[in-house]
Structures are given as structure tokens and as C-alpha cells.
Amino acid sequence: MSKKMHIKLNVNGKDEEFLAEPRELLIHTLRERLNITGPHIGCETSHCGACTVSINGKSVKSCTMFAAQANGAQITTIEGIGGTDNLHPLQEAFKEHHGLQCGFCTSGMITRATKLLEEIPNPTEEEIRFGMAGNICRCTGYQNIVKSIQAAAAEMNAAKEAAE
Amino acid sequence: MKQTVSIRGSAHTDLIHDSAIKHVSGGADYCDDIAEPIGTLHAYFGTAKVAHATINSVDLSAVRAAPGVVGVLTAEDVPGVNDVSPTGRHDEPLFATEKVEFWGQVLFAVVAESRDIARRAVELAKIDYTPLDHVIEADEAVAKGYPHVTPPMTLKRGDVAEGQAAAAHRIQGQMRIGGQDHMYLEGHIAFAMPGEDDDVIVHSSTQHPSEAQHMVAHVLGVPSNAVVVNVRRMGGGFGGKESQMNQFCAVAAMAAKKWQRAVKIRPDRDQDMETTGKRHDFVVDYDVAFDDEGQIQAVDNTFAARCGWTSDLSGPVTDRALFHADNAYFYPHVKLQSRPMKTNTVSNTAFRGFGGPQGVVAAERMMEEIAYKLGKDPLEVRKANFYGDTDRNLTPYHQRVEDNVMPRLVEELEQTSDYQARRKAVLEHNAKGGIIRKGLSLTPVKFGISFTATWYNQAGALVHIYNDGSIMLNHGGTEMGQGLNTKIAQVVAEAFQVDFDTIKITKTTTEKVPNTSATAASSGTDLNGMAALNACEQIKERLVRWACDHFGVEALLVEFAPNQVHVGDKTFTFGEFIKQAYMSRVQLWAAGFYKTPKIHWDREKGQGRPFYYYAYGAAVAEVSVDTLTGEYTVDRADVLHDVGKSLNPVLDKGQVEGAFVQGMGWLTTEELKWDDKGQLRTHAPSTYKIPLAGDVPREFNVNLADWSENRELTIKRSKAVGEPPFMLPICVFEALGMAVASVADYTECPRLDAPATPECVLMAVERLRG
Q: For residue B126, how many other CB atoms are within 10 A of its CB?
């Protein structure tokens, strides 16, 4: 057993502090230590995207990052994006446009999409398809996922305009 | 006064998935999300690293001695029978004993304090083998005299020799069709909790909880009533979790009973892909005779399948390949034979379409052969061979096609997709002789609905109304994303005329509905929906009888209106009505049952009516192929699909789109590669490529045939939707063929094998250029 490391994270706005072995992967920290089970384990090799979270404003596959590497970081998971009574426009859109079937990829998809819309607030369909290429869905054929992101982008842009 | 209000979520309406809000907020629980009791142990499989060998010795001492390892399970530890064969053929040992028959076969399981410890410990095993020759390919198995894993089937009608003699043309050829990994995003998993006496509860992600229950009992040597299997939802199944979960459930349960602690087993993706079965690879030898118009006179085809080391479901899978070897076409004289070959590979299993797609692909290959031979548009040849309405409507298995909507579907799609003008444009484009060649193809699908194992076509449901008017619905089907729970709850909502939200859909559990069939063969809604409706009708009948008695009215005057019940001139809310019925001691729950009528099948004779009805569809695809690299894009796809009178169009359309893309993956990018030693080299998404968001058709128009109604009395006249659309993207495959054929001016059938990877396309281009 290696020497444990002292790790501090801020997850969904809450400070967390614990001792962990250097090899502990972030996805295990989230799911097993912090009981945050929205991010899922799909392939464990960073190809499927089911474990996607945001770390300091960037989309990261949490299955291939050590918890120690995230020391001091701000982490957002699907649970931090919105709850059942205050859904984020992307969550609302995935729900309303049937952008999911089995749901296993959904938390990663939405988490990635929040960053995509920060990177490109008004993306073309092509940009959405390229920007989401790190997240696999085996059920939907992606049609409704793309539609959901387009709908959410329109909604968010309209809200932004109204606020300005 | 006429009521204009209606309930939320009745049948035939667009309703979002019942778990959607949980999915988008991270609150939907999968098996791996269940909170682990203190002391939970983790199991992991130790597997063979050789394709075929005798086992000389197994030394697990270092495994057992590893810190954190609680113990090891081998064949010797099995209390009952060391077998998880789903069809009772007893040919699938849970743990290998004397022989290894494929790379990845389970030899033992390690049980440890953590999953990480278990995974590391399996590597410490010392196994001594004497390697034997191994066989990977189906045709190689035929050549080497390998056995069938299960008895083959022959379908025969008419006289093939006579048909061949009378025909002007005859073409013989061979086609190789690759397999496919399910690549469900959530892999295999089982989580067992020991109970008192012989009891054990297993949470799992299985499409077939009843079979898992029976298998666990079989392995533990206890009666089925000691075992409970629960499934809340799956992160995708596609057939891969029909029989393949048995081994995980059995090992978790064995370990839980042995150490009296909760035990979870979840392989990593590589082990999941190496150790569990896939879609069957086929080698099809075809022999088609036809006249100058392109009408088929005789077909004599043999379907050899890579079944792997055991039978698993290969019998019914290879049977279904034959059942769909006609696709939508009438064969006057026909002989079809299956060769379910044993190979030294993982035992192939169910996968959306269940052998049907391979049969359909081979039928479409024959259409292409005929078209290239006669210089016709393949669509003309297809139309010339469609089943007729009153004649030319007998299948090779002697069932009459009585509900043929194909001509109308294809005519509509041809119009809406502007097929003729686009074909002309594609031919003109290719005539210019550029590097980028185009292809356009329209292909049909006819798919038989019912399990061909007739006894599987039964289902049960349990409906409770609590005395506050809330309803709990349980049925034998499992939810894997297809929206089965949503659709069945819509049926219940409509039956009682209550809002959808009144109904709680519970997990699937063997405790509530026994002896269920797998949620497979597209049958989930057809079977379980009818069973749930039957339960509702029983309860309604009791309620009406009671209301007549209690209020002194005629049955006609008891009306279930939206969220209300009218009894004569009185009106109650549904909840008030139920409360009164409870106070009057009315039984407010019922178990429903359904068995599909009309079907029968005699496999020995190859005759019967295996299918209750057929689902139809058609699709057109246009592709662009770079003839210098073999790379291609799908520029546009148009789909028209028949789901009868859809219970939920938005869910059904989602199924069609998803199936199209999954089928396209099978025929284009998804390639299973075994090396010379018999190891699967594409065992993770890094090397096994399923379609990404950018790989799908640039323009994708999907429509349901909104005029269709099932001619049979299915649930609300709907049709099954899970599998049939999987075969729609065969048009992509044939369009690629057309683009390739253009380099030889369409004088030769391009004979692409599946999957048509860019590499395969490039080689075909080179071959046709000569």
C-alpha cells in the first residue's frame, strides 16, 4: 500500500477533504467515497464518456484521472448542474426531446454539453456532432441528443438576450 | 355535457420516458449505484489465455495468498451443477475443468475485499496448458469437420432442381457477414445478498431475470423459490444480457452464500467483451436462379454460423436466419439450411434481430446479383420479387404473408425520398468518372414477430390499486431504455382513465411475476402490455359489478372517465371511487396473463405459423465514397417504418433511429478481429468502433407509417419495434456497393463483405478495377 495523500476537492459547491491512495481514480472517489453516482463507469479507458465531469471549467473523463491530480479543483457532476426541481435548460431539453433511452450515457452527455455551449454558445449541427464526439451513445443514434442540445442552446441564448 | 378533458399519457400519445427526469439529473439507479452493505466483497473472473487446450494443472496458491483475497471459487466449489447453459443442453460449464475451448473462458473466480484486489489477484494464477489446434471461422469449422453445437434446420418448399432447370440465369456466390459486440454502455454486473436458509437475492442488469433465477438455483443446487432476481433498469441490453448474465449472477450468488456477505461482480470492458457472446458471424453460400425479368425461380442457400464453444441460443438464432432468408421476397422453389458451427470462440448469443439480419442481408445480396447481371435498377428487381397479396405469398416455412404492406411503404418512400431523380443524378455524377463516387439504394425489411420457441410467447403482470387510488404496476418485462415501462403504464392509464403519474412502475422481480420470458424478440410490449391490460380488465370488471350492486345501476352507467368515475348521475374522483370499493371489500389487485394466439411451429417438418404478424419498413441511403482511400460518408438516409398504430410515436421513432445507426455500425465500422492465436483483438471501444454523433447520415429523415394498423389484435393494434428497424441500414451497405460498382461501370456485382470498412471498400474498388 502506498502512502495516502491528503486531497481537497470542491464537488458541486461542497468542500470535500480526505486521505486517498495516489492511484485512486476520480470516478471511484466520486462514486464510492462521495456517493455521487450520476457519473457512470462505461469503459474505464476514457473512450465512452459516461464518466464525464467538469473540472475547473473543462470536460474531463473522470475514469482516467487520479483524484490526486484533481487536488484543489472545482468539480461539477450532473448532480451539480441541476436537480429535479431546478433543471438546467440542457437537462430540460434532453428530457423533453427524448434525448435518451437507457440513460447510462446521459449524465456524461449533458455534462459535456454544458461545456460545449460555453465553448460555442450557438453551435451549428456539425459543431455539436464534433463537440460531442467523445461521448458514445449506443441507443439513440444521436438524433435526439443533437436536437436537445440545439433546443437548449436556443433557449439559453434567448434567455441571455432577454437579460441584456 | 361532453367531456373534453383527457388524461395525461394515454395510449397513442407522445410521452417522454418515465425515468427521463431521473436520467437527466443523475438520479436513476443502475445496479452499480445500489448502496453496498458493510462488508461487501468483490468477485472477478480468472480467464483462459489460450483458445483451445487441455488443462494440465491449475495452481491458485498465490491467488489465495494475496492480501485482501477472501477466497477462490472453482468447479469444485459448485454446490449444484457446474453448468449455465440457457437451453438445458448442459454444454456450458460455469468454470472450465479439463479443457479450455476459447480465449477468455472462465476458469475460476477470486473473491476479495475490493474489486481492485480481486483484479490484481487473478493475474497470480499459474495455469499449465497443452495447446490444441483451434478454429475461429465458421467455414473453417465446416472444412475441418467441427461439430454443430445444436441440430441444424432445413426449410424446404417446392423443387429447387426443377426451378433451377426452368430458369434462364443462375448465380452462385459466397458472402461473409461479420458479428457485432453489443457495446451496451453499462457492462455486465450482478450483486448478490445472502438471506436465511437457502435464500439469496441477486440484483442484476439482465434481460431475463427468470432464467437468471433458474440458473442460480441450478448452480447452487436449491429450488428456484430460494432465489430472487431483481432488475430496476439496464444501461442497454440489445440481447447481450439475455443469457450472458447467468454466469455473473451464479458466481455472485455462490460467493454470497459461501461467505455470507454481499458480493458484487463487474468485469471491466475488456473482460466483458472477451468473455461474453456477440452477434453471430455468418458465411452464406447462395445459389439463386431467376428469369430475364429478374424474378427469382429457385433459391438454395446454406448459412454457416460461428456459434462459439457452446450452443447458448445458437439454435434459435440460426433458425431465425433461415426465417428471414426470404426477407420480403417470394421464392417459388427454395431450400435453406443452417450450419450452427462449433468454433473456439466465445459463445455467440442474442443480438437485436437474432440471426434475422444475417438472413436479410443475404437476401439483399441476391437482389444485387440479379440486378447487376441483368443491368437493372436493384429496386426494380426487389419490387419484382415482393410477396403478393393473394398469391405468391407463401414463405419457405409455409406461413402465408397476410398483412403485406410493403408495396405501399416502398411506393411512398420512393416518392418522398425522390428516389428516381436522385438515382439519375447519382448515375450522372459517377459517369463523370471522378474520385468521389456516389451510391443510392432502397432496401425493404419484413420481420416476423413472436418468439419462435412458441412457449416463450406468454407473459404476466401484477396490478395493484391501493386504497388511496394510486396504482402500482409490475410486469415480467425489463426496461433497458426502450421505454417498455412507459408504454405499459400508458396502457394501464388508459384502461382506468387516470393520469400517467397515478401509476408507479416498479422494478422487475421474480418475486412478483414468475416464469417470465426474456425481454427479447421485440416482444416486450406485445406480451407484457396485454398481460397488464388483462389485469386491469379483471379489476375493472370487479369494480363495475360492485358499483352496479352498491349504487343500483346498470353496468352501462358505470363509466371510467378521465380521472373520474361516473356511476349513474353520481360522479366520483378515481380515488374516492376506489376508497369506497375498498370499504366494500372489493379485491383491488389482479394478476394478468397473456399468451399469443394463432402461433404454432413444427421444427422437424419446417412448417407452421411461427409468427403472429410481420413488421415492415424500408429505407433509402445515399453515400459518397473516396475511391482513393475507401473512406465514405452517408449523405442522406430516409426511413419509412411500420409500427402499426403506435402506442408512443416519440419512443418508437427513437427506437427506429437508434436501430438504424446501430445496424449501420454493424455493416460499416464495427469489426471483430481475432488474431492467429485465437484472441479477440478488438475488445474495447479503443479498437472496436461504434458510430459517433458525427458518423450518422448528414441528413436523416425518419417517419413512421402513420396509416398502419396491426391486422392482428395486438395491444392497441401496435406493432413491435425493437428489432425490425435494425435491418433498415442495409441500404447504406448496398449504396456503398453501388459506388464501388461504378468503377467497373456496374457490370459486376461488387460483392462487399460485411462490415464494409473503408479498408474493405478500397479493396473492392481495386478488385473491380482489375
A: 11
